Amino acid sequence: MKEKLYRFMQGRYGTDKLNQFIFYCEIFLLILSLFFKRNIVIYVLFYLTLFLYLYRAFSKNYVARSIENQKFIRVQAKTVHHVQAIYKNLKDKQYKYLVCPECAQMIRVPKKKGKIEVHCPSCRKSFDAKS
Ligand SMILES: [Zn+2]
């Protein structure tokens, strides 16, 4: 039995960050279904995410799944850094926190310097920003 399962999973993509996120969405939808019983939209979304999870986990197309995962990681990093920058901008009175539009690196610049050109230390690109 164990060998059969091993042979079945050989060459399959398995799980990654995007699949973990899809799994958490499924858990969230399950919890929502407890509060909104007989809501067809929640059930449809749940089965769609379940299908997507299984499709990605059992897929043999490594390249396509890896590209999807890399895109997801980039979007996730940008989103997290933007939220962190908003939070830090509210707390810090001396510095302003910006997010590089190219690589999503968070950059700290002094406040009240007017319009400045910012050089990203990570990707070496420069962009204009108001501090
Ligand atoms: Zn950058």
Describe it for me?
With 131 residues, this protein is α+β, with helices and mostly antiparallel strands. It has a domain at 1-60. Helices cover 58% and strands 15% of the residues. It contains four helices and four strands, in the order H-H-H-H-E-E-E-E. It has helices spanning 2-9, 17-35, 40-58, 62-91; strands at residues 95-99, 106-110, 115-119, 126-130. It has a two-stranded antiparallel ribbon with strand order 1-2. It has a two-stranded antiparallel ribbon with strand order 3-4. Strand 1 (95-99) and strand 2 (106-110) form a beta hairpin. Helix 2 (17-35) runs antiparallel to helix 3 (40-58). The chain is elongated. 8% of the residues are buried. The mean pLDDT is 93.
What structural class should be given to the helix and strand makeup?
Answer: alpha+beta
**What is the count of DSSP helices, taking H or I runs of 4+ residues?**
4
Largest sheet: 2 strands, antiparallel
**Ligands:** zinc ion
| Fraction in helix | 55-70%
State the strand order across the main sheet. 1-2
The best one-word shape is elongated
Distance between the termini: 63 Å
Mean of pLDDT: 93
Please report the total strand number as a whole number. 4
Q: Tell me the radius of gyration.
A: 21 Å
Could you give a quick summary of the protein structure above?
This protein is of the alpha+beta class.
List strands and helices in order, with pairings.
Elements: H1 2-9, H2 17-35, H3 40-58, H4 62-91, E1 95-99, E2 106-110, E3 115-119, E4 126-130
Antiparallel strand pairs: 1-2, 3-4
Helix pairs in contact: 2-3
This protein binds zinc ion.
Zinc ion binds next to loops.
